[in-house]
């Protein structure tokens, strides 16, 4: 697919894109309230700063150590955090408030991207992980704005997809100023797609540089006392997708046969599914409490629905064992390092291609195990719950992996320094 075909198709889809925004806005008002931003119609933007694009919730969380460091290192430069999804935007505002300017990145129409970039005239664009758009990169090149791909990752599956449209992908990758890859495999895949070797640096993953709030353990201990959880085995199933909740609940039924006072904290990935999952839990016959309704966990409650935003670390801090979702369906899994950083052993499904290197390291350390179905998940969880010493050992192994792999943030900041120095 050539550039003109790509742009032709985008413009054919323009009416449907607009209608989809209106439709999504009925369920999530943020989509309807910011339509003008999707086409470069931003009203007020700070100029001469750094844009950090984090498409959704996962990328926003991954960008947290980098954004915090940039706020400290470059207090004179405004930071613009752009998102594509409402959940990502909401989390960015919750994390940084008025310390940054949060807005939506326009859809990848050349005229919309140009309007946006001309309004804010950034010194640098930092794109998180894999969110590369041809017209964003092309317009930045035309306006001589450097573009950095930070925390870059590319699975073999995604690389195969990119490889099918080289006439579109290769010029985009060749226009990047610098590509900070999480690992050597990612670096090689990008190079095979046409990224110049001179622009690629292997930095490791920013996800290892996550920060645990100082008061997190205290808050978790207070909740344990308040809800009388000290003697209850707790399994946290985090970031579940449609099709996974049923499997998790089936596994939990089996866990309860061995640990009849066990508690499941179930945290769906997407807020629009909260009510649907609550109905599913009730239909399965479990007594349920919901965080969104400020309901306490009483001794009768078997499933606690973590239907809130920004509290996942707190639920992990309560956990004896954690399940990381997106791994029983073809999503590719989510970040297993948050429970690892809290010394909580992890179980996942078999589909973790988004975090293959991290998963492999945790598997080798014994901090993570994988199961194909509900029965295998239940068996793994029960083995850890029945053997507290082994559970603690495996949890500590995960924490050791996190600590041993820190350092990507320092490398990213050095790259930013170099790029900004060239821009002066």
TrEMBL record:
InterPro entries: Glycos_transf_N, Glycos_transf_N_sf, Kdotransferase. Its main location: membrane. Keywords: Cell membrane, Lipopolysaccharide biosynthesis, Membrane, Signal-anchor, Transferase, Transmembrane. Its EC number is 2.4.99.12. The record marks 129, 207 as: Transition state stabilizer. Residues 34-209 form the 3-deoxy-D-manno-octulosonic-acid transferase N-terminal domain. The active site is at 59 (proton acceptor). The keyword Transferase applies. GO terms for cellular component: plasma membrane. Transmembrane segments: none annotated. It is found in: Cell inner membrane; Cell membrane. GO terms for biological process: lipid A biosynthetic process; lipopolysaccharide core region biosynthetic process. GO terms for molecular function: Kdo transferase activity. It is a single-pass membrane protein. Pathway: Bacterial outer membrane biogenesis; LPS core biosynthesis. It catalyses: lipid IVA (E. coli) + CMP-3-deoxy-beta-D-manno-octulosonate = alpha-Kdo-(2->6)-lipid IVA (E. coli) + CMP + H(+). Belongs to the glycosyltransferase group 1 family. Glycosyltransferase 30 subfamily. PANTHER family: 3-DEOXY-D-MANNO-OCTULOSONIC ACID TRANSFERASE, MITOCHONDRIAL-RELATED, 3-DEOXY-MANNO-OCTULOSONATE CYTIDYLYLTRANSFERASE. Involved in lipopolysaccharide (LPS) biosynthesis. Catalyzes the transfer of 3-deoxy-D-manno-octulosonate (Kdo) residue(s) from CMP-Kdo to lipid IV(A), the tetraacyldisaccharide-1,4'-bisphosphate precursor of lipid A. This is 3-deoxy-D-manno-octulosonic acid transferase. The lineage of its organism: Bacteria, Pseudomonadati, Pseudomonadota, Gammaproteobacteria, Moraxellales.
């Amino acid at each position: 697919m050539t550039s003109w075909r790509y742009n032709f198709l985008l413009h054919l889809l323009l009416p449907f894109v607009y209608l989809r925004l209106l439709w999504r806005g009925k369920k999530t008002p943020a989509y309807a309230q910011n339509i003008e931003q999707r086409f470069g119609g931003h009203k007020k933007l700070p100029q001469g700063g750094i844009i950090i694009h984090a498409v959704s919730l996962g990328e926003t969380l991954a960008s947290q150590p980098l954004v915090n460091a940039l706020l400290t290192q470059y207090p004179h430069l405004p930071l613009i955090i752009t998102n594509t999804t409402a959940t990502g935007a909401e989390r960015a505002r919750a994390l940084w408030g008025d310390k940054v300017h949060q807005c939506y990145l326009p859809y990848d129409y050349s005229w919309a991207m140009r309007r946006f970039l001309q309004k804010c005239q950034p010194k640098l664009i930092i794109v998180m992980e894999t969110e590369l758009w041809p017209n964003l990169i092309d317009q930045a090149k035309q306006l001589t704005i450097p573009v950095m791909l930070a925390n870059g990752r590319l699975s073999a599956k995604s690389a195969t997809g990119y490889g099918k449209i080289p006439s579109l992908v290769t010029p985009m990758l060749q226009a990047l100023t610098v590509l900070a890859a999480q690992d050597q495999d990612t670096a090689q895949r990008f190079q095979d797609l046409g990224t110049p070797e001179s622009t690629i640096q292997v930095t490791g993953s920013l996800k290892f540089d996550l920060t645990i709030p100082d008061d997190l353990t205290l808050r978790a201990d207070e909740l344990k006392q308040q809800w009388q959880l000290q003697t209850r085995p707790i399994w946290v199933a985090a970031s579940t997708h449609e099709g996974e909740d049923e499997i998790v609940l089936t596994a939990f039924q089996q866990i309860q046969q061995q640990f009849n006072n066990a508690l499941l904290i179930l945290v769906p990935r997407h807020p629009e599914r909260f009510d649907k999952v609550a109905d599913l839990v009730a239909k399965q016959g479990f007594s349920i409490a919901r965080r969104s309704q400020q309901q306490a966990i009483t001794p009768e409650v078997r499933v606690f629905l973590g239907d809130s935003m920004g509290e996942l670390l707190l639920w992990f801090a309560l956990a004896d064992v954690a399940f990381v979702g997106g791994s029983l369906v073809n999503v590719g899994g989510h970040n297993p390092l948050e429970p690892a950083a809290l010394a909580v052993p992890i179980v996942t499904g078999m589909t973790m291609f988004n975090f293959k290197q991290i998963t492999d390291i945790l598997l080798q350390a014994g901090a993570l195990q994988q199961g194909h179905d509900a029965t295998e998940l239940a068996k793994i969880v029960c083995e850890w719950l029945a053997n507290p010493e082994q559970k603690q050992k495996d949890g500590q192994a995960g924490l050791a992996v996190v600590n041993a792999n820190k350092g990507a943030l320092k490398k990213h900041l050095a790259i930013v320094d170099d790029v900004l120095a060239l821009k002066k």
